[in-house]
């Protein structure tokens, strides 16, 4: 096991970073600030300040979080070669990774090969700096990569054919241990005191085969093998043995066998490494190439994308139908909220039964409807029943329901993309007890960022690639390894499940709509605001193209069902929604004609002849005789009983039928009494009386004073979305290219003035650090264990200079020790005037 390298601050490493930054072109600095917007907001006063912000641990961590697996692997390899102590040749980094710095990609030219692409992006992010043929790291980046979930390749580790040979010789327990580590969040496995003998034997077998290294937790904390291994706190706290797989073995366990030899350099040891360095070329895919699961099953990219869009459109029709069912249910039975906020399980079950949906479907539907403003919490009334603090449809729901399917779909998709709650977390256990309620306060990390990570990874795959559900976590890990190490696989699978139900992902393929969400608004990108979500108007045409074409013909079947082979044209959809109940929705919609649905149509003024004419005109098959009989039978019985107000009355020309009604359960329920052989009166409201009679098998209608039939319906609940007490906070706009160029011009001007005054020669010259630069220097000193002099001012305005070795910087103070006396020192950050380096010759 290699020992960790010394952590003293290199005398020639970091100070050149501000000078290198000043030498970069404006285009390069604009690109850097665009990729790392946190360092440009607010605009830095000088390039020295910009350099200080780029070296802050928080900013470095954010930049590391945007790296893909190849980029993280290149950075880790450069750190393992000592790039924080001085320049490391890129050829040495490429050799260690088993690629040539000019190695051609299988499908693209040199400029887009994985290694130069990764190096270029790391340089754009200022995580790598220095000459074009070398790589250097600032200490804070080296510290961050030491804690990252990555293992750099080790010289002489098995790769290519030798890896496959070693893999084939592994026992089942050994390969199981390796695969378990590979599938975890961290590439480290802990061998605790309770580890079984079989697990320890498997770990020893991996070490003997050169596929892993066994080290102690103390060494892992210190930096792992070679001073650049994973941090020990990811494998367990305190001393103890940990298993760190080799990079090629880890890649093999996660992604399967590579088609050909990965690298002669890493497979054959030092002698082969020299030969590989001479040739500068390798054969077969390397650790930086996309795994086999990213390759299309067959070259059908255009057709695969089109098929995925069409399948997404089918899922959208089903989504719209289910949303309509939820809105209809909430219109009559609003959701009561809990005292602590949100909606309880009992309420969800009640609404699920009313909407004829599975209870597991409701959290997503409710959250999306709430985010779209179609339901809201407030006070409402249903008839003469008042409800306090309930979730019910808003007036916007009526407008939304009347719009075209593409527009309705677009509004739901954009609401899901940015909504602050994660429906899949509903029902999860809370730390303080209880479970996460639906429509409650947001819990967990921001789900919008999770959705962007997951859909962004799928959008970067070829549409024809089919990795499968089991490899979905590995796909996201490849493109966002740092985020995956914190979040795990649950957000990946659950987010994909939600996206499938919204028609944005089909199996594992991102649709065109999902890719537009990831890419952002084209208009905003043109205006210099990349990453802005598309508008409804921009997204609607993409979704409209994915929806099936509307049809005007149906198939009437003998089992009293009507099959629409696609979405019906609007006028027919309204007629069939009145005439029949939707039994299933999707690419084809199945309607079922029942007595109650026919009565609904007759109540609305349709006639038996009109119903028969509609069916005969639109059906491509003859109307079955059974359906004709049903229509005639319902129409014959429909309206024989007439309901008025007494509050209400019942009249009928048939005295025997009136007597029959008077003896029914409805008579007692509605307090019916006879005023004439053909007339009954009741104190129940007409609609209540009609429903009671229908429950007993009668088919009454409501009439007005002239005897004309009137269609009554239940009043529905509507709430007005609560207006916020104050204007919503508008997020600060990220600076665009023009803003950044203006800021850069001001920074360069400030540096020229400073150089003229001090004669320091610009950024990176002699002198101490002040302001943000001082804080950044303290962070670096704490990460490297180097001594600095700190000038502080006390409450009386007197300044003093302290020599300390910082241990931690945060919470408004810097803590460390004085090297001469080993005395603990704590200084408030707000009293720090400047920080200066210690002359290494003293």
Describe this structure in words.
Helix 5 packs across helix 6 (90-97) and helix 29 (595-603) crosses helix 31 (625-637). The protein is α+β, with helices and mostly antiparallel strands and 842 residues long. The strands form 7 sheets. A 6-stranded mixed beta sheet has the order 17-18-16-15-19-20, covered by helices on one side. It has a 6-stranded antiparallel beta sheet with strand order 21-26-22-23-24-25, with helices on one face. The protein is elongated. 45% of the residues lie in helices and 13% in strands. Mean pLDDT is 80; it is low at 1-13, 101-109, 218-239, 261-283, 723-730 and 758-766. The two termini are 35 Å apart. The chain contains 36 helices and 26 strands.
Class of secondary structure makeup: alpha+beta
Radius of gyration: 35 Å
Number of strands: 26
Shape: elongated
Major beta sheet, strand line-up: 17-18-16-15-19-20
Low-pLDDT regions = 1-13, 101-109, 218-239, 261-283, 723-730, 758-766
Largest sheet: 6 strands, mixed
Tally of helical runs: 36
- Helical residues, percent: 40-55%
Average pLDDT number: 80
Amino- and carboxy-terminal Cα gap: 35 Å
Fraction of residues in β-strands: 5-15%
């Amino acid at each position: 096991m290699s020992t960790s390298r010394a952590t003293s601050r290199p005398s020639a490493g970091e100070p050149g970073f501000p000078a290198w930054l000043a030498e970069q072109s404006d285009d390069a600095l604009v690109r850097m600030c665009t990729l790392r917007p946190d360092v440009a907001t607010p605009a830095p006063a000088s390039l020295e300040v910009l350099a200080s912000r780029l070296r802050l641990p928080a900013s470095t961590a954010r930049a590391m979080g945007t790296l893909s697996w190849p980029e993280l692997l290149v950075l880790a390899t450069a750190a393992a070669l000592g790039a924080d102590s001085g320049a490391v040749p890129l050829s040495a980094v490429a050799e260690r990774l088993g690629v040539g710095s000019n190695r051609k990609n299988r499908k693209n030219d040199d400029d887009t090969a994985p290694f130069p692409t990764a190096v270029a992006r790391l340089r754009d992010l200022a995580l790598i700096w220095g000459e074009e043929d070398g790589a250097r790291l600032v200490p804070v980046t080296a510290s961050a990569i030491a804690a990252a979930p990555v293992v750099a390749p080790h010289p002489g580790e098995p790769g290519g054919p030798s890896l496959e040979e070693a893999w084939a010789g592994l026992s089942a327990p050994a390969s199981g241990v390796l695969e378990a580590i590979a599938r975890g969040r961290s590439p480290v496995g802990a061998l605790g005191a309770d580890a079984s003998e079989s697990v320890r034997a498997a770990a020893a077998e991996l070490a003997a085969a050169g596929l892993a290294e066994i080290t102690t937790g103390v060494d892992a904390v210190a930096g792992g093998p070679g001073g650049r291994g994973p941090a020990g706190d990811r494998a367990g706290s305190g001393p103890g043995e940990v298993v760190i797989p080799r990079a090629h073995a880890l890649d093999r366990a996660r992604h399967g066998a590579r088609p050909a030899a990965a690298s002669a350099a890493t497979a054959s040891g030092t002698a082969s490494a020299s030969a590989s360095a001479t040739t500068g070329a390798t054969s077969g895919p390397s650790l930086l190439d996309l795994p086999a699961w990213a390759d299309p099953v067959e070259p059908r990219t255009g057709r695969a994308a089109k098929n995925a869009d069409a399948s997404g459109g089918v899922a959208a029709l089903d989504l719209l139908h289910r949303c309509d069912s939820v809105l209809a249910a909430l219109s009559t039975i609003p959701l009561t909220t809990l005292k602590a906020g949100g909606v309880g399980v009992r309420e969800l079950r009640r609404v699920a039964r009313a909407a004829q949906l599975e209870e597991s479907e409701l959290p997503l539907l409710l959250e999306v409807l709430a985010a779209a403003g179609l339901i809201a919490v407030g006070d409402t009334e249903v008839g003469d029943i008042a409800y306090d603090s309930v979730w019910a449809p808003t007036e916007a729901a009526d407008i939304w329901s009347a719009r075209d399917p593409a527009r309705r779909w677009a509004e739901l998709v954009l609401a899901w993309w940015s909504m602050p709650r994660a429906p899949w977390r509903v029902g999860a256990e809370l730390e303080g007890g209880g479970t996460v309620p639906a429509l409650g306060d947001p819990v967990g990390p921001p789900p919008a960022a999770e959705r962007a990570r997951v859909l962004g990874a799928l959008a970067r795959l070829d549409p024809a690639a089919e990795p499968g559900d089991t490899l979905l976590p590995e796909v996201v890990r490849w493109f966002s390894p740092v985020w995956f190490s914190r979040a795990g696989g649950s957000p990946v699978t659950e987010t994909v499940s939600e996206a499938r139900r919204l028609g944005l992902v089909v199996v594992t393929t991102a649709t065109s709509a999902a890719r537009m969400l990831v890419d952002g608004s084209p208009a905003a990108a043109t205006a210099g605001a990349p990453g802005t979500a598309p508008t409804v108007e921009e997204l609607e045409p993409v979704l409209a193209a994915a929806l099936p074409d509307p049809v005007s013909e149906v198939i009437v079947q003998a089992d009293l069902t009507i099959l629409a082979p696609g979405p019906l044209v609007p006028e027919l959809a309204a007629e069939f929604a009145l005439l029949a109940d939707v039994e299933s929705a999707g690419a084809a919609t199945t309607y079922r004609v029942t007595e109650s649905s026919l009565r609904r149509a007759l109540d609305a003024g349709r006639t038996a002849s009109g119903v028969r004419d509609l069916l005969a005109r639109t059906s491509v098959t003859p109307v079955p005789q059974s359906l004709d009989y049903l229509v005639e039978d319902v129409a014959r019985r429909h309206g024989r009983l007439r309901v008025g107000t007494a509050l209400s009355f019942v009249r009928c020309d048939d005295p025997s039928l009136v007597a029959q009604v008077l003896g029914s359960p409805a008579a007692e329920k509605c307090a019916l009494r006879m005023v004439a052989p053909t007339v009954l009166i009741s104190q129940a409201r007409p609609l209540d009386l009609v429903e009671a009679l229908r429950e007993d098998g009668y088919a009454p209608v409501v009439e007005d004073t002239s005897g004309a039939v009137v269609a009554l319906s239940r009043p529905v609940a509507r709430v007005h979305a609560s207006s916020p007490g104050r204007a919503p906070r508008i997020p600060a706009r990220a600076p665009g290219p023009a803003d950044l160029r203006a800021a850069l011009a001001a920074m360069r001007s400030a540096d020229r003035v400073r150089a003229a005054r001090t004669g320091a020669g610009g950024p990176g010259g002699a002198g101490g650090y002040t302001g943000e630069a001082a804080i950044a220097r303290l962070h670096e000193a704490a990460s490297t264990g180097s001594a600095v002099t700190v000038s502080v001012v006390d409450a009386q305005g007197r300044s003093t200079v302290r020599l300390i070795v910082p241990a931690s910087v945060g919470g408004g103070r810097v803590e460390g020790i004085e090297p001469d006396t080993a005395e603990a020192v704590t200084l408030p950050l707000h009293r720090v005037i400047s920080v200066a380096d210690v002359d290494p010759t003293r």
